[in-house]
Amino acid sequence: MTEGLSEAGLIAVVCEACGAPRTPIGPGDDAALVIAPPRGRQVVTTDALVEGVPLVEGVHFLRAHPPEALGWKALAVNLSDVAAMGARPSAFVLSAAVPEGLPAAWWGAFARGLAACARAAGAALVGGDTVRSPGPLVLNITAWGWTEGDAVLRRDGGRAGDALMVRGNIGRSTLGLLNWLKLAESGWGVDGAVRDDALAAHLRPAPPLDAGPWALAHGASAGMDLSDGLATDLPRLAAACGLVLEVELAALPVDPVCAGLTPDERAAGGEDYGLAVLVPAEHVGAFIARGFASLGAARQPVGGERPGVLWRRHGAPTELAASAFAHFSGG
Amino acid sequence: MTEGLSEAGLIAVVCEACGAPRTPIGPGDDAALVIAPPRGRQVVTTDALVEGVPLVEGVHFLRAHPPEALGWKALAVNLSDVAAMGARPSAFVLSAAVPEGLPAAWWGAFARGLAACARAAGAALVGGDTVRSPGPLVLNITAWGWTEGDAVLRRDGGRAGDALMVRGNIGRSTLGLLNWLKLAESGWGVDGAVRDDALAAHLRPAPPLDAGPWALAHGASAGMDLSDGLATDLPRLAAACGLVLEVELAALPVDPVCAGLTPDERAAGGEDYGLAVLVPAEHVGAFIARGFASLGAARQPVGGERPGVLWRRHGAPTELAASAFAHFSGG
Q1: Which of A37, B38, B46, B69 has a 20 to 30 A CA-CA distance from A124?
Q2: Are strands A308-313 and A244-248 parallel, antiparallel or unpaired?
Q3: What is the per-residue pLDDT for B187?
Q4: Using the 8-state DSSP alphabet, how is residue B251 labeled?
Q5: Which are the contacts of B186, defined by CB distance < 8 A and separation ≥ 6?
């Protein structure tokens, strides 16, 4: 089907790159066998990526996206979800709807990126499915992991008085997207290594996978993956908890890479894949020592107030600059 | 995005139809929580379906496919894989890349069929992802289940002297496909109920989900899902076991629905979603009582022979009629 690669060939390339175990632990039988740890809870997530046309809303990647980076990212965004529930990623399956004429070299590079992310995270490829697509390339990964005990890091566990804390490079991915779109105008000249830090945050994100399990074990009351940016994700966290989150834009952690962005732009940007948590006061010191930054605090809604986010700028109530949304809503 | 349905709307339709539990057990948080039973092994499989153009090889379904039947089938084929490992299906996630303009009624019917299969099998929808597709509709399901103990029904466990036994309506799906293609010529006039037995076997397959766990518990040494038909799947089973399977075409269980097909045509047809097992002699009686039919026996290869299938017709060595392959290789 694909230039120089049969369906079995497509599968072999990925299995070899990922060092997939032999059946029935991994691919090869009707289904894969997963050995569950004697205790703990399993956490499962899935994400689909569809190839599309530049700058059309809803598009996830372009064929010109460096394939090695795409392989990495397709897995990383799933593992970020698993970790944000307080679980350690353990395994994943990959399904791909592959168009005719996809270059074998593209697929090989994609597999290498996928495998690199899998190795870095300690997650094993245990199965998948490869089919032909009469349209775009569609990639789908389902990933899972295990918690140490019975608890998971839910979105709805926060309490009034908890501190709102984040870990991850807020805004870098957004800056990377801007850099990427500029490069697109000049012909998409990016190699697999991606040396620019902002570009790397967008093309090859490295979610803090240890942050979720650590936060769960050290007293966080709620947590969520920052996949769509603070401006979109924090209202979801507030709603899940039924609380008002007062957030100080000036408290965003200093990041020299993001020196060219305003706090509003950093807050509005998506695909940060950081972790937002609510932390009882007595644990805040330990979280700061672990690399979390405190952005504000949770409180009960008062009067007719609805759960949500109240933004502050150096203490004064404020709105996020609308231009930030306009810039980044397509990202 | 879709006619009358936002992305959240698409998700809500499916969650409501399937009675999906609330977060974090089901959809709604970063990932789903799955409660593992205290013992047993987990089994995971995934299958992607891509919408395509009629009669092009590699195409899985057409928009004109009755959407309720498609929802049923998309899940059933995954659950069949899970059951063929000896596990009871427990949960699944659905990812869909949905084109603009997909009618809301189509999606609603698809969700109802999915939910009907989920209820019948006792499998819960616990998550998923819905994205926009600039091309065809792409559906992907990852499903899993649990075994009672440590063992799974592998493909490679068979021993010389085992009987080859099958359960399921071999050939019905093939006949259903033929009926379906004839209907296609006259305008695809099939309603959701699908009253014709052969058509139902193709459009709305009902794999014997209890057969795998039962066979594992009652002494089967190997097993596999019959998704591609005897002619394609049995050589795979033989190769996995390193054995020669001698298969009697006249032993195919009588099925009045398939009276119009030759044994060769029934053997060559795909998508039966039955179960093939290898069974030690002392257990054969119990398997027959449970609805399995004996098709032949496994033996060691002799001389320079390679593992594979030797077909017999009323005892005499034979080849499968080539015309059967020609008819059904596109199915």
Answers
A1: B38
A2: parallel
A3: 54
A4: G
A5: none
Longest dimension (CA), chain A: 67
Of B41, B52, B127, the CB nearest to A44: B127
- Chain B residue numbers with beta carbons less than 8 Å from the beta carbon of A46 are 93, 95, 127-129, 140, 142
Most confident stretch, A135-149, A289-303, B18-32: A289-303
CB nearest B44 (choices: A43, A93, A130): A93
Query: Of the candidates B222, B234, B199, which has an alpha carbon nearest to the alpha carbon of residue B320?
Result: B234
Q: Which of A69, A76, A90, A51 is nearest to A271 (CA)?
A: A76
Q: Quick one: what percent of chain A has pLDDT higher than 90?
A: 56
- Asked if A136's CB is within 8 angstroms of B30's CB, the reply is no
What pLDDT does B267 receive? 95
Domain at B7-146: CATH architecture: 2-Layer Sandwich (3.30)
Average pLDDT over residues B154-159: 93
Q: What is the mean pLDDT of chain B?
A: 87
**Beta-strand (E) ranges in chain B?**
32-34, 42-50, 88-99, 124-133, 138-146, 163-167, 222-226, 244-248, 274-279, 293-299, 308-313, 316-318
CB contact under 8 A, B43 and A35: no
B138: nearest CB among A28, A52, A138: A138
Q: What is the dihedral of CA A217, A223, A227, A228, to 10 degrees?
A: -160
Scored b (16 or more CB within 10 A) or e, B268-295 reads bbbbbbbbbbbbeeebbeebeeeebbbb
What is the C-alpha to C-alpha distance for residues A137 and B94, in angstroms, rounded to an integer?
Answer: 18
- Does A93 sit within 8 Å of B142, measured CB to CB? yes
pLDDT digit string (tens) for B113-152?
A: 999 999 999 998 888 888 888 888 999 999 999 988 888 9
Query: What residue spans of B62-192 are helical by DSSP H?
Result: 67-84, 104-121, 172-185
Of A33, A47, A136, the CB nearest to B134: A136
Compute the radius of gyration of chain B from its Cα atoms.
20
Ranges for all domains in chain A classified under CATH 3.90.650.10:
163-328
Q: Which two tokens stand for residue B311?
A: 């077909």
Q: Which residue of A has its CA nearest to B127?
A: A45
Chain A CB contacts of B1 under 8 Å are 58
Nearest CA to A140 out of A89, A77, A219, A204 is that of: A77
Among A85, A142, A152, A209, pick the best mutation site for testing chain B contact (most B Cβ within 10 A). Answer: A142
CB pairs below 8 Å between A and B: how many?
Answer: 212
Record the tokens describing residue A4, joined without a space: 């120089």
- Write the DSSP assignment of B208-228 as a string of letters: -TTHHHHHHHTT-SEEEEESS
Mean pLDDT of B227-254: 95
Residue B208 token pair: 């014997």
Interchain CB distance below 8 Å, A135 and B135: yes
Q: How many degrees, rounded to 5, is the angle at CA A231 between CA A246 and CA A315?
A: 30
Q: Which residue does chain A place closest to B98, by CA atoms?
A: A50
Mean pLDDT of B155-168: 96
Range(s) within chain A of domains with CATH label 3.30.1330.10: 7-146
DSSP 8-state class, residue A309: E
